[in-house]
Amino acid sequence: MRPGRGAPRLLAVYGLLLADPALAQLSAQVGVASDYVYRGVSLNDGNPAVMAAVNYDSTWGGFVGGQVAQTRLYGEHHAEPLWTIDAGYAHALTSRLSWEVGATYSIFSNFTFWNYAETFVGISSENWNLRLYHAPNYFGRQRRSDYIELNGAYPLNDRWRLIGHLGVQQTKIIHDGDRDRTYDASFGVGTKLDRVNLQLLWVVINRANYVYPSTSPDDRRRWVLSANYAF
To answer: 174, exposed or middle or buried, with CB in 10 Å at 0-12, 13-18, 19+?
Structure first.
């Protein structure tokens, strides 16, 4: 997935800073992670998760993609696939800087009341990207959500990079003035071996975030090891 792509998950968020997808029109990835952590929260109850993604980037700047990931959320008795589709437009400002705008829709096959839409705008460079997301009814839980994140990678050599992420989420009950703000971060290393991206990350969140239907919202620190293969 290109830098700044919507609906970033473990398969894409950190791998995008190690790959060079600008040369491809159609791309696909499959991956596995020791946990599926999204914005500092485990969506798979601390268990290993598999995921896959496919993306198309047009020559005029439009893009569309889809991803499926394994989850295990509150009330589920088995793994539930989370399907995410995204579409938008990206435009180069310079040879190293671009902006984008688009939208995503996340679908739970058997728990459709958690489905939600999110819009995003972003700006990206070679080794960093900044994005702002807005969801009018996040995870179908009657809360508006605004999330801003900064992702970066620092090359150590031709193969290895340091990886970092900072995110801030503010949610508000739709019919109330109650607001919650949560901070999450991750730091680690990544390497690219031909078509395989490997990452080891230390993920932290400042407090339990109950806006997610997670089975383990109180877990605030974890190591996450992930690998994906790009076609």
So the answer is: exposed
Helices (H) and strands (E) in the chain, counts: 1, 14
Q: How is the chain split into domains, by residue range?
A: 10-230
User: Coil, strand or helix: which one is 94?
Assistant: coil
For residue 24, CA distances in Å to 57, 74, 107, 178 come to 8, 38, 27, 45
Measured between alpha carbons, how far is 11 from 156 in angstroms, rounded to an integer? Answer: 22
DSSP state of 35: S
> CATH homologous superfamily of domain 10-230?
monomeric porin ompg (2.40.160.40)
- C-beta separation of 88 from 122 below 8 A: no
In eight-state DSSP terms, residue 18 is: T
Residue at token pair 């071996």: 193
Residues 144-158 have pLDDT tens digits of 999 999 999 999 999
pTM: 0.88
Provide the token pair at 41: 């929260």
